[in-house]
Amino acid sequence: MIRIIECENLIKIHKQGNLEVVALQGLDFAMEKGEFISIVGKSGAGKSTLLQILAGLEFPSAGRVEVAGTDLTDLTAKERLSYYRRGVGFLWQDFTRNLLPYLKAVQNIELPMLLAGVPTRRRKKRALALLEAVGLRSSAYAKVHTMSGGEQQRLALCVALSLGPQLLLADEPTGELDTETSLSIYDLLRRLSHDGGLSVLVVTHDVALAQRTDRVVRLADGRMATQGRFETHELLAVDRRGMVQIPRELLIEAGIDDQLTARLVDGGIMLEPSGGEDGD
To answer: Model's pTM, two decimal places?
Structure first.
């Protein structure tokens, strides 16, 4: 498999006056081309910060981050702008940020291509093809303000994909939509990923929606805590230092409080409440 994202020991520190807030602390994360992954976690876990760095909108404080072969830690301002415009598609939480309300639907999609110098005929053909793909071909010449929230969200997705990026980054893309519309958006993203080969990374707070993706990554305190899910088991992420973060709900279910005992057994490591039968 080809990796489209690779982050190693990624650190991001935000300065707020005299204070320094660590948003990401040693994050290791990788994503394969064509995957559809969701990122979940509490507020302040570093989800949106990660997306902003992957989009080239923020600089990491330390570590390495590479997207589709581009090292984002060593770009000039001009290269960073070019990467943001062509390398990735970004779907904002407030999806109206992707749209210009005084333009028609097809004009919104054509605009990024116009700025990139794409010829008129190619612009029109791609814009109409994208509208067809999301079920909006009949609304090609509608003004944005006449479209429903779900239609505007699908149009914003078309704008994000107008220049044919390999990677789509979406920050809470259904946060302002009803459940039925949200499910349809996720089904559309899944189809674009599985049928079209688009790599999709979505930040969401909705676990039910996250479970519709190929892989769920949970962030906690700026690090990857878990990834994937199989029935009641979690696949725990191990960082480069051998550190593992275990979800609190699993610790509670296992009767583990503040301390636990780890011991080697045939085929793996067993974790037990400290003071258990075989513990110290």
So the answer is: 0.79
